[in-house]
Amino acid sequence: MYVAVKGGERAIENAHAWLAEERRGDTDIAELSVAQIREQLGLAVNRVMAEGSLYDPDLAALAIKQARGDLIEAIFLVRAYRTTLPRFGASEPIDTGEMGCDRRISATFKDLPGGQVLGPTFDYTHRLLDFKLAAEGEVPSAPVREASGEPVPHVTGFLNREGLIEEAPTEDITPPDLTREPLELPADRALRLQALTRSDEGFTLGMAYSTQRGYARNHAFVGELRIGTVAVEMEIPELGFSIEIGEITVTECETVNQFKGSKTEPPQFTRGYGLVFGQTERKAISMALVDRALRWEELGEDDVGAPAQDAEFVLYHGDNIQATGFLEHIKLPHYVDFQSELELVRKLRREAGAAEMPEAAE
């Protein structure tokens, strides 16, 4: 707090009160509840959970309400709260092969075992404002369930049978936890994927778009995009085996990328991967494209100097909380710093003026 500012503490208290008043809005209109946000603004809730690294729809909805809909502020609130939570254990890696899919599409195979499931998506809407939604008392019709909830195989497994796609890594190594340890470079793929999962959706989207416009070796197809629920299991030491403690919804994207070959390896497709909390498919696809671009060195490709290939640039600038903090700090008082620079500029101008005077006299 800048206590040197006259009346600063009282001004800050008044600002908080005014903020609460603006948050509430017109008191003649019913207050928006946390449950309404959770159930009706689900995609916003999913983004806050994903970039806040905390799977809790109620807390994410509360943060959105407190932040007046500013999702980056809501993500900040969730991350701050997350640091106060005790850790009493770690869950087992989730098995997305056992996912009960609500949505599952592939841009590479039309007919695939388990079928394509369109699910809840804006992809086929006309992007026209629906004024029926503004009418009070509208009751939506019950959706027709397309998904059976049964697990379906991954599409990339079909390519893997013929050796047409690189093998997925199988090393059983616990990666560092980015939420507890600072990011250090060089970062392996597991750490990069953690950073991309928490990164700002807009930033990741921009990086992914740049790869599609030629700023990286990255011609991709969506091998599979799936959204659904997966079981979370945790090993109980007293029992000696794992038990299911709950379910979460995730979005997983696997891209099939341009092939490569060498003197020892036949031509084959390569992979990009994205996994995000909730229904967050734009972020998952973007993450997969950027993941593939960052793999240029391990795949033996040339560095073409694309922004999305620069791990330091991508990983250090994608976190919206760090970016927001650094950006917004410049609006806080910097009176002393500015006064020193102001005096320096005045001094330089005086010296420059004095140097020009003799020449003018001549």
Describe the structure.
The protein has twelve helices and four strands; from the N terminus they run αααααβαααβββαααα. The longest helix has 27 residues, at 335-361. The chain has 362 residues and is an alpha+beta fold. It has a four-stranded antiparallel β-sheet. The mean pLDDT is 86. The protein folds into two domains: 8-82; 96-324, no CATH class. It starts with 7 loop residues before the first helix and ends with a helix. Helix 3 packs across helix 4, helix 4 crosses helix 5 (71-82) and helix 8 crosses helix 9.
What topology does this entry show?
Layout lengths: L7 H17 L9 H7 L1 H11 L4 H10 L4 H12 L17 E6 L50 H6 L27 H10 L2 H12 L7 E17 L4 E20 L7 E10 L3 H14 L16 H7 L2 H9 L6 H27 L1
What is the H/E order? HHHHHEHHHEEEHHHH
* N-C termini distance: 56 Å
Number of separate helices: 12
Mean pLDDT: 86
Strand order of the biggest β-sheet: 1-2-3-4
Low-confidence stretches: none
Secondary structure class reads: alpha+beta
- What level of helicity do the residues show? 25-40%
The value of Rg in angstroms is 26 Å
Number of individual domains: 2
Net shape: globular
Total beta strands: 4
Q: What oligomerization state is this entry in?
A: single chain
Strand content: 5-15%
The major beta sheet can be summarized as: 4 strands, antiparallel
